[in-house]
Amino acid sequence: MSAAANTGALDRAQLQGNILRGYRHKQVRHLVLAVAERATACAWLGTITGGDTTLAPQITTEAPWLVKPDHCFNIGITAQGLRALGVSAEVMASFPDEFTDGMAARALKLGDFGNSAPSRWSAPFDDPALVHVVATIHADDSAHLDRVQQRVQATGNGQAWRVLGARDGANFNGDQVHFGYRDNISQPRFVGIHDPADYPDAQPLAPLGTVLLGHKTAFEGLFWPVPQPAVLGHNGSFSAFRVLAQDVAGFEAYLDHAASELLAHPQGHELLAPDSAWVARSGLTRHNALREVLAAKMCGRWRNGVPLALSPDAPDTMDPTHPVPLGNFDYQNDNDGARCPYGAHMRRCNPRGSTIVQRMANHTRRLVRRGIPYGPAYDPAKPDDGIERGLLGHFLSANLAAQFEAVHYDWLNLGLQDPRITGSNDPLLGANDPVDSWFELPLPAGGAIRLRGLPRFVSTRGGAYLFLPSLPALRHLAAA
User: Collapsing DSSP states into helix, strand and coil, what is residue 24?
Assistant: First the structure.
């Protein structure tokens, strides 16, 4: 870390979009590109920031919209991509090691082993040296995705880039993801960008340095180092781009098995009272209601998005269509985990104000999540359809090691934030093995039920560490 940085006034028109605010289009396409002809590719970086839409698709910025565009376009560049574009070894040395190493080289820190190992990743991510750029197109229909892709491929008469692959994603049932949960509810809100009155949240507003280089961080007086020259690094961000396959059939089967176990457990009634008014209202069998209780406990929210911290006993006590109160909660008064388990996915990823071992880290590892499902919605009538489905995600931060990797290594897969979960993995995203995995369900009257034998529900199918340059940085690369 450095002790100072040239922050200056923030001109949002000079930032790539989808960092401080989400686009919320219905579809996305991630094009994986390799530099084919350096000079033409570099020149194109200037063209996409020049403002002339007749020459090339233009980078979408963070400038406020008067009218939502019919498509948005952004790019992220790998370390190999920067080298392929002619960035010198001296400049590359100013980037952090985790970025220049690349995601595949950091696999063990991320829990990417076994079926998630880089050698098992889908092409082209199985050969990280080939991946130079991920160009992302957001739109509400496939026609716009196709049109922008064609324009990218036509750059320099088709000589600038080789398209190594494409990954498409699309929303279904609003913000629902494949495990059945509602997503995209709670994201960091930034100082000077968001009005706290519009987004009430028990968490403090995040400083811009959470996700942008050259700005104040959550560490008082400290800034993350900015790659040099400053025009290249300032106002840039890093993304961990991930292709995450979700074993929906396995998840639902586990809920079935564990609910049966809880029904037979002598303390199972403490998780769901036999006379529960919610069960009567829902019309569910007691077994199916326990499935939903367990799904909520594993995540930290009911599947409709209502947080356990606000409604521990039923999912229908709040309006799940109103996003504001769904993000305004904390765990400070739930140290025993009776409302939301201390091992729940959401609480592990973001402990908010709860007591943890690394007390100063509570609000320092926050990530901006931009994700969308891929593959068709799961059909319970066809559990073995053989179709891969999952999530395409950009996980954004100003420091990959201190934020993204630390969350995965310390919190998701080791549980170092709380001795009560140390040695266990995240029940949803963790690198679990049925041989030694466990998840603890604290009980309101004290004690806990420990479930064992969780399989791995999420496997990595590909990914890359990306640098998201500002518009001045892209022009600098073009001029160089």
Answer: coil
Tokens of 419: 């001795």
Find out whether 409 and 278 touch, Cβ atoms under 8 Å. Answer: no
* Tokens 């930290």 -> residue: 300
In one-letter notation, the amino acid at residue 188 is P
d(CA 132, CA 148): 19
Domain ranges for the chain, please list them: 12-245+463-479
Distances (CA, A) of 80 to 83, 100, 103: 5, 8, 12
- At 395 the three-state DSSP class reads strand
Q: Are 458 and 244 in contact (CB under 8 A)?
A: yes
How far apart CA 435 and CA 42 sit, in angstroms, is: 51
For the question of whether the overall pTM of this predicted structure is more than 0.90, the answer is yes
Q: Provide the b/e sequence for 357-374 (b: ≥16 CB within 10 Å).
A: eeeebbbbbbbbbbbbbb
Residue 231 CB-density burial (10 A; 0-12 exposed, 13-18 middle, 19+ buried): middle
What element of type H or E holds 35?
Answer: strand 27-35
In this structure, what is the dihedral angle of CA atoms 370, 375, 378, 379, given to the nearest 10 degrees? 150
Q: What's the pLDDT tens digit per position in 378-389? A: 999 998 899 999
Is residue 279 predicted with pLDDT exceeding 50? yes
pLDDT above 90: residue 175: no
Asked whether 388 and 120 are in contact (CB, 8 A), the reply is: no
> Is residue 389 a contact partner of residue 372, using CB atoms and an 8 Å limit?
no
* Strands 368-374 and 438-442, bridge-based pairing: unpaired
Query: What's the token pair of residue 404?
Result: 């993204």
Q: 3-class SS at 238?
A: strand
The pLDDT tens digits for 222-266 are: 899 999 999 999 999 999 999 999 999 999 999 999 999 999 999
Q: What is the pLDDT of residue 92?
A: 98
Instruction: Kindly indicate the confidence band of residue 323, based on its pLDDT and cuts at 50, 70 and 90.
Output: low
Rounded Cα–Cα distance for residues 407 and 401 (Å): 9
